Amino acid sequence: MSSLAERKARLIVHGDRPYNAEPPLARLRAAYRTPAEDFYVRSHGDLPDLDPDTWRLAVEGGDGAARALSLHDLRTRFPQVTVTATLQCAGNRRADMRAVAPVSGDPWDAGAIGTAAWTGVRLGDLLRAAGVTEGADLHVAFESHDRVDGRPYGASIPLAKAMAPETLLAYAMNGEALLPEHGFPVRAVVPGFAGVRSPKWLRRLAVRDRPSDNPIQAEDYKLYPPDVGAETADPARGHTIDTMPLNAAICEPERGAALRAGRTRVRGYAVSGDRAIVRVDVSGNGGRSWRQADLEHAAGAPFAWTFWAVELDLPPGEHELAVRAWDAAGQTQPALPDDTWNHKGYLCACWHRVRVSVAAARIDGAIPGAHD
């Protein structure tokens, strides 16, 4: 296995402590299942160094009793399942909102997202074994080994999502043990929800009658109107971010690319929290006209992204490429980041735009090739 330093060198690092990084977009689009070393990293504290042999997960279930499960217990006492799912930071594409007005947080481009085959046990199986009754208006609170401002990281999800068959306690990613930066030895995977609800380095989970009171849950990751700033934000009035919105991004060509006139292949991804992607439109002129892209989606993976590709015939000049996706409810994306700007820079889901310059074909008779 490569070292952490070698893996960092592959990524665009936004911060070292805590470690936050994303892959170049062309590399992100190179494989439907994102290799672990190219998967974005979102940390709130230092990376814990945990021994899998002594690691234990404390579980407080519906009967009030406390249990401790080892990694061996998870592997042997519950059915192993694999779910292909996309995880995404709530701040993905924050850089586009920063172009409108200042926002807080790391300046993520469109790479704070990735898709993997996650292997582990269904959280619902574990909760049922702990005496939890389905259908109750309860919450599952997670606590992790990493620390944020002096206390353990914590977040929660509604019991209904915890019991859903796609929600896992995962110990493997793409068939290999989790890397330290991705939650080794065990993390939650909550498909369709913002990545903040999939805590890494788990140490404890508890069923309770209200959401977690940890600041990550109670105060952070709230969506506010554009007229609310950091000084006036009231967490009790902010919308808690769970399900992620419809989104799409252009991964190739990159911003500022110098292309040759003629056919240019444009490729990217589209994703929706809990609905299928049914159409992706791509424009070579800033949205004045559109072409529909070809779609690629993994069978039986409703919580995974859709890859798309299209060829555009671009004449010489400056061009603004744009993409918008449509979901199964017939919903599409807002045109501008101004439409959903908020001081935290969360949930940027406007058309993704990439400006490129196209040069005229060479005059020596050579025919410019397509960009593959």
Give me the secondary-structure topology.
Elements: H1 4-8, E1 12-16, E2 19-22, H2 25-28, E3 56-60, E4 66-70, H3 71-77, E5 81-88, H4 94-98, E6 113-122, H5 123-129, E7 139-148, E8 151-158, H6 159-163, E9 168-173, E10 176-177, E11 187-189, E12 202-208, H7 215-218, E13 222-223, E14 239-240, E15 247-252, E16 258-260, E17 262-271, E18 277-283, E19 291-292, E20 294-296, E21 306-314, E22 317-327, E23 352-359
Parallel strand pairs: 3-12, 16-23
Antiparallel strand pairs: 1-2, 3-4, 5-6, 6-9, 7-8, 7-12, 9-10, 9-11, 13-14, 15-17, 17-21, 18-19, 18-22, 20-21, 22-23
Question: How many structural domains does the protein architecture include?
Answer: 2
Assembly form of the protein: single chain
> How many helices?
7
Order of helices and strands: HEEHEEHEHEHEEHEEEEHEEEEEEEEEEE
CATH topology of the largest domain: Sulfite Oxidase, Chain A, domain 2
Q: What is the CATH domain class of the largest domain?
A: Alpha Beta
Query: How is the main sheet built?
Result: 5 strands, mixed
CATH superfamily of the largest domain: Oxidoreductase, molybdopterin-binding domain
How much of the sequence lies in strands comes to 35-45%
Give me the Rg, rounded: 22 Å
Strand order, biggest sheet?
Answer: 4-3-12-7-8
Helix percent reads under 10%
- Characterize the overall form: globular
Calculate the mean pLDDT score and round it.
95
Give the uncertain stretches in residue-range form. 363-372
CATH architecture of the largest domain: Alpha-Beta Complex
| N-to-C span | 31 Å
